[in-house]
Structure to design on (402 residues):
């Protein structure tokens, strides 16, 4: 029996910590829980960045498992499963809370093998949407099987929840929407970087140019390379425009090479990891998101909190917060030419840009406050333990008692 009113031992599991939205969500979840008096463990793979590790509360116990990797790797995955089982048996958590698809698969299997009382899965992206048929089939089979050992799902948006329930991944009563929190006030009150002329590579006499900002990990699904292919025609219309791509990742060299091939080195700035993304948003005239697949990316809310008009591709859950021609523009996901056209349209029309910016800044975002996220996560744990959410899962021989 677990007394939900007493401090818990909570193990969060994620494959990597590299400044992505799910990674930051996981760290904030850990920090909020440890500040509430719980004993918290953060179990992650070897792919990390020092900047995000530095944001983890020192009271959180960090456990690195080199075998836990993001790509499908059968030998490493089998080892990671065994490592996770041994880790859970040693740590004896009351709750295992997994994040992202790969950690969700291995973490939930290991939690069941280690007889962890409560298993929670965080749905940051729906892995069977906007992928090929084989991936859709594989992910659906895996998620439908794993839902039998999942006491509750934490979805970052209502749209995410609905996609899962409609696909038979968990019942509606086991899905809980908890928006991915961050420090709202930081983005609402941000100012541009003091060194912005140097960042934009301006000479002292140069006027301020139009600035388009995209914050995204340099991965294929973010489509930086495809965006770059459309930039020359935008630059032909606005030769002084600057495109600031903040982030890093395995495509950094390919992106840099493509910029040079296209001859747009003057117009495209790669900042790498930037310690103050809120300042880059404050610098922007337009914020961009070109992803092929996402959940409801937290950076979208950060753009809006900064009061900037957003141009974002039509992702499955984006309508939960972004309204076309109200606080941004939403071209079709498969139409990056349309995304480029939208950039041109807003750069050509300052009045429209100002209207969208005003609506962005007044978008209701209180659900994304970090402290509120921590409180709502605790409420889900408590509801499951107290029996307000059914604990007897289909196909399980034993149920957790409360």
């Amino acid at each position: 029996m677990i007394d939900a009113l007493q401090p818990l031992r909570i193990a969060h599991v994620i494959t990597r910590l590299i400044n992505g939205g799910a990674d930051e969500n996981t760290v904030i979840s850990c920090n909020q829980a440890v500040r509430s008096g719980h004993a918290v463990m953060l179990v992650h793979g070897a792919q990390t960045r020092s900047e995000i590790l530095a944001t983890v509360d020192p009271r959180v116990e960090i456990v690195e498992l080199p075998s836990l990797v993001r790509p499908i790797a059968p030998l490493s995955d089998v080892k990671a499963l065994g490592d996770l089982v041994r880790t859970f048996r040693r740590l004896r958590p009351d709750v295992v809370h997994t994040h992202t698809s790969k950690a969700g698969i291995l973490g939930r299997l290991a939690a069941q093998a280690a007889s962890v009382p409560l298993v929670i899965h965080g749905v940051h992206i729906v892995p069977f949407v906007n992928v090929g048929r084989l991936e859709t089939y594989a992910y659906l089979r895996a998620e439908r099987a794993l839902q039998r050992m999942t006491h509750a799902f934490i979805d970052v948006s209502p749209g995410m929840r609905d996609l899962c329930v409609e696909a038979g991944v968990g019942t509606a009563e086991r899905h809980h929407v908890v928006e991915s929190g961050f420090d709202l006030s930081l983005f609402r009150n941000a100012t541009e970087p003091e060194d912005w002329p140097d960042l934009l590579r301006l000479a002292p006499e140069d006027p301020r140019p139009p600035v388009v900002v995209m914050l995204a990990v340099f991965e294929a699904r973010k489509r930086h390379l495809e965006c770059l292919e459309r930039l020359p025609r935008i630059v032909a219309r606005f030769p002084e425009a600057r495109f600031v791509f903040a982030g890093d990742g395995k495509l950094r060299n390919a992106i840099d090479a493509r910029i040079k091939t296209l001859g747009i080195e003057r117009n495209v700035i790669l900042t790498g990891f930037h310690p103050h993304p809120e300042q880059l948003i404050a610098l922007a005239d337009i914020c961009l998101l070109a992803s092929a697949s996402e959940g409801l990316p937290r950076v979208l809310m950060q753009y809006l909190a900064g009061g900037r008009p957003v141009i974002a591709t039509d992702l499955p859950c984006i309508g939960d917060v972004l309204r076309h021609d109200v606080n941004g523009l939403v071209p079709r996901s498969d139409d990056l030419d349309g995304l480029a056209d939208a950039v041109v349209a807003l750069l050509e029309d300052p009045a429209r840009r100002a209207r969208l910016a005003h609506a962005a800044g007044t978008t209701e975002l209180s659900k994304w406050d970090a402290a509120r996220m921590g409180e709502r996560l605790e409420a889900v744990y408590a509801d499951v333990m107290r029996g307000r959410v059914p604990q007897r899962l289909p196909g399980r021989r034993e149920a957790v008692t409360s």
Remarks:
- Residues 31 and 58 are 9 Å apart (CA to CA).
- The mean pLDDT is 90.
- The chain has 15 helices and 13 strands.
- The first helix runs from residue 21 to 35.
